[in-house]
């Protein structure tokens, strides 16, 4: 059901505006944690900052764990 929903939402945009669709995902892959995100709060509590590639890996891993769970 999740894959079908993702396709229903994304496929029309990808078809009509492919450059914009790719740009959205490209820009999101380069941005850091927002100041109100749980990952930023966790990093601040530990006294560190995460580089964007590490942040992407951590957030992707957490998403996979939530999907599996």
What would you say about this model in short?
The protein has helices at residues 2-16, 18-30, 38-46, 52-68.
Please explain how this structure is put together:
- The chain folds into 2 domains: 30 residues, no CATH class; 37 residues.
- Helices cover 78% and strands 0% of the residues.
- The chain has 4 helices and no strands.
- The chain starts with a helix and ends with a helix.
Mean pLDDT: 88
Overall structural domain count: 2
Number of helices: 4
Beta content: under 5%
* Assembly status: single chain
- Work out the number of β strands: 0
Low-confidence residue ranges: none
Q: What share of residues is helical? A: over 70%
Class computed from helices, strands and strand pairing = mainly alpha
C-alpha geometry: flat
- SSE ordering: HHHH
Topology:
Elements (H helix, E strand, L loop, with lengths): L1 H15 L1 H13 L7 H9 L5 H17 L1
Helix pairs in contact: 1-2
Keywords: Membrane, Transmembrane, Transmembrane helix
């Amino acid at each position: 059901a999740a894959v079908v929903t993702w396709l229903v939402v994304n496929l029309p945009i990808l078809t009509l505006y492919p450059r914009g669709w790719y740009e959205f995902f490209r820009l999101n892959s380069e941005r850091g944690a927002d100041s109100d995100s749980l990952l930023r709060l966790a990093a601040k509590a530990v006294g560190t900052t995460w580089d964007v590639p590490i942040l992407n890996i951590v957030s992707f891993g957490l998403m996979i764990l939530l999907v599996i769970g």
